[in-house]
């Protein structure tokens, strides 16, 4: 992919508003819209100004009511997929699933607590590792006689002394830190995923009364319709 560079320009407010409106209609970011606009302009210029720029075809805008219905449909589809994937078809299934999910979250939280305790115990040497890496260049410049690097050089020396005195090789510490942070990140992702499941359970349960009423209304309408046909 070709490298990119920032392009800034002051334009009249009226032109800015026109660009923003066209960009929103195109469903593009400002960067994408300006890039495409400039490409079209230079293609036109390269062809001697004789080529016509094709008129963009934008999809019709949805009304607020239609947008609301689309959002509601997507929400219902997501909830249906959730119920199907987890084999939930009764109230008992939902209650059991919620209990399992809460137990899973509790277990994950305990694991995270253990790792955070380990992280806290190693915080000083982990911070020293970060300082040594971040300040290595400053220490090199200080050793070469560059002024203004005294504070950074002092921090580097302090961190280096701490690492040398901890009795653990730096490469081993670095590997341990990376693995600990990886495990914490994975646990946090798992906890968020389980919490999303609980939130989905709550959303579904809140809609159950309305769903029951809708089904009952449909059944009543069907009975009335059948009676009318028999007459």
Specify the structural class.
Answer: mainly alpha
Low-confidence stretches are none
How many domains is the backbone divided into? Answer: 2
Instruction: Work out the number of β strands.
Output: 0
Biggest pleated-sheet summary: none
- Return the average pLDDT rounded to an integer: 82
Helix and strand string, N-terminal first? HHHHHHH
Radius of gyration: 31 Å
Short description:
The protein is mostly helical and 231 residues long.
Molecular structure report:
With 231 residues, this protein is mainly α. It folds into two domains: 13-46; 64-230, no CATH class. The chain has seven helices and no strands. It has helices at 13-26, 30-46, 64-85, 91-121, 123-143, 150-165, 170-230. Helix 5 crosses helix 6. The longest helix is centred in the C-terminal third of the chain and has 61 residues, at 170-230. The radius of gyration is 31 Å and the shape is flat. The protein starts with 12 loop residues before the first helix and ends with a helix. The mean pLDDT is 82.
Helices, strands, pairings?
Layout: H1 13-26, H2 30-46, H3 64-85, H4 91-121, H5 123-143, H6 150-165, H7 170-230
Helix pairs in contact: 4-7, 5-6
Please give a handful of descriptors for the protein shown.
231 residues, mainly alpha, 2 domains, 7 helices, 79% helix, 0% strand
């Amino acid at each position: 992919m070709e490298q990119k560079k920032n392009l800034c320009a002051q334009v009249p407010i009226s032109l800015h508003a026109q660009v923003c409106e066209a960009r929103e209609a195109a469903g593009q970011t400002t960067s994408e819209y300006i890039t495409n606009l400039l490409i079209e302009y230079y293609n036109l210029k390269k062809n001697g100004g004789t080529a016509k720029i094709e008129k963009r075809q934008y999809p019709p805008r949805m009304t607020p009511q239609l947008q609301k219905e689309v959002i509601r449909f997507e929400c219902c589809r997501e909830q249906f997929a959730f119920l199907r994937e987890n084999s939930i078809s009764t109230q008992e299934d939902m209650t059991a699933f919620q209990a399992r999910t809460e137990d899973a979250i509790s277990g994950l939280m305990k694991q995270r607590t253990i790792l955070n305790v380990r992280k806290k115990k190693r915080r000083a040497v982990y911070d020293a590792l970060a300082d040594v890496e971040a300040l290595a260049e400053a220490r090199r410049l200080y050793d070469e006689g560059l002024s203004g690097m005294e504070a950074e050089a002092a921090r580097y020396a302090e961190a280096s002394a701490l690492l040398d005195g901890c009795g653990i090789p730096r490469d081993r510490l670095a590997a341990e830190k990376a693995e600990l942070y990886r495990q914490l990140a994975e646990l946090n992702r798992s906890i968020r995923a389980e919490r999303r499941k609980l939130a989905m359970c709550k959303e579904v349960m809140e809609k159950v009364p309305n769903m029951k009423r809708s089904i009952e209304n449909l059944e009543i309408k069907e009975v009335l319709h059948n009676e009318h046909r028999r007459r």
